[in-house]
Design a protein that fits this description.
There is one protein chain. By secondary structure, this protein is α+β, with helices and mostly antiparallel strands. The protein is built from eleven helices and 22 strands. It has a five-stranded antiparallel β-sheet, with helices on one face. A hairpin with a 2-residue loop joins β1 and β2. About 31% of the residues have low confidence.
């Protein structure tokens, strides 16, 4: 039976930054002794030139677990170690072709918008033959990056794969040939617990036609509510990529992914109002409700007015208004009334709670009320959807039907999540 989007698989981890990676598992060209490079800082092992293993990687080769991996450079870029031939040289050739100086090919110029920016190659001074791709870290500007890696296409093997390789890839996730995409991993920030929920490739391979919708929805659910703003923005980004694929016949992509990123630190403030004035901004310490005060839990809302009876009216975007009132009836009883009104009077709802029903624990209950209110779409939200992993890209003179099929199905799934 399908479950609600917020009932995700319980492999949740209170994930913080990793405590470090054993230096002896890193390539000798990159790993340096802690004494030479200053030891550990902030729980991370510092490597050559101040690089550290990518802390929020959700799929692919990882430092400390695999021979290859991705490093974060202090300048805000990532370093991706070139894979052995033919995959590594093929990916390098792809980037060099797309970002060739003086290029006038409109197809390739537009493709640049959907890739991480490419800054050439990088090698450690001590090992000039070890090559790394120097790429934009698209998560760098996000405070609490939520990340999902989705492999796109009906085939995760290229035209030159052996029969054994084809069988191996098909057996990993037979549904991919039908739906055209596979969730490789995700990392979702939960603001109430200040922790991350992570899922690996086994999570994605366990999704079926009946559970794929809720499986993807988990990436956009922060433990309180569904981030419909991030879903809508992601759909728009995918449609732009789809438009590019429908108008190009130069390249076919296999085993390539889309990287989704949005900020889990949703713009949210909590403000106390007393006698119509703002007293404090920021998170309210649990259990501290000002005497006779009114609590406004502000989620992209703007205060319009407040009245003497403690009622605050706020605007919440297009066509909506909410009213929150925290009334002190007597010393031991506080009641909260929440009204949600759409200006065209299509619907109206209200919720009332009293302290005697809350066992005196007011703030956690207020959080529950506001968390389960309809999510409002802000005017804009920062979302990234970028194409990554190009070790299996080949010249072509036909449309990439497998990739197009996957993009269309992914859009359909996201739209169904948004609509329901």
């Amino acid at each position: 039976m399908a479950t609600e989007p917020w009932r995700c698989a319980k492999s949740r981890e209170a994930e913080r930054l990793p405590r470090g990676v054993k230096v002896d598992v890193l390539p000798s060209s990159v790993a340096t002794t802690l004494a030479e490079d200053g030891g550990e800082e902030g729980g991370k092992v510092r490597l050559l030139n101040g690089c550290v293993p990518l802390s929020h990687q959700v799929a692919g080769h990882m430092y400390g677990k695999d021979k290859g991996g991705i490093l974060q450079h202090p300048d805000g870029t990532v370093l991706k170690q070139l894979q052995p031939p033919p995959r590594g040289p093929r990916e390098l050739e792809f980037y060099n072709k797309v970002y060739a100086a003086g290029r006038e090919d409109s197809v390739m110029l537009e493709l640049q918008k959907y890739l991480p920016k490419y800054y050439g190659t990088w090698s450690p001074p001590t090992a000039p033959n070890d090559l790394y791709l120097k790429l934009e870290d698209v998560t760098h500007r996000f405070k609490k990056p939520c990340i999902m890696d989705v492999k796109i296409g009906q085939k995760s093997y290229d035209p030159y794969a052996s029969a054994e390789k084809i069988k191996q890839q098909v057996n990993k996730y037979p549904l991919m040939e039908e739906i055209g995409f596979l969730v490789l991993g995700m990392r979702v920030y939960h603001p109430r617990s200040d922790s991350y929920e992570t899922q690996n490739q086994h999570y994605g391979r366990g999704l079926t036609k009946d559970t794929i919708k809720n499986g993807v929805a988990c990436f956009f659910h922060n433990g309180c509510y569904l981030r419909k703003d991030a879903i809508a923005a992601s759909i728009q980004k995918i449609k732009e990529i789809l438009h590019w694929f429908e108008n190009q016949k130069q390249l076919n992509f296999y085993a390539s992914s889309l990287l989704f990123v949005y900020d889990g630190l949703y713009p949210m403030t909590t403000t106390w109002l007393n006698d119509g004035g703002l007293v404090e901004k920021g998170r309210v310490p649990k259990g501290q409700v000002p005497s006779g005060g009114t609590l406004e839990y502000n989620n992209n809302m703007h205060v319009i007015s407040s009245t003497e009876n403690g009622k605050v009216e706020t605007s919440v975007g297009k066509g909506f208004s909410k009213m929150y009132a925290l009334h002190k009836r007597h010393q031991s009883q506080i009641s909260l009334k929440v009204e949600t009104v759409e200006q065209n009077n299509v619907w109206k709802s209200s919720t009332s709670l009293s302290q005697e029903h809350l066992n005196g624990n007011v703030i956690p209950q207020l959080e529950k009320v506001f968390c389960h209110m309809p999510a409002m779409l802000p005017e804009s939200v920062e979302v990234e959807v970028r194409m990554i992993d190009f070790a299996h890209v080949f010249p072509s003179n036909t449309q990439d039907e497998g990739y197009i099929h996957g993009l269309k199905n992914l859009i359909t799934v996201l739209q169904n999540i948004l609509d329901t």
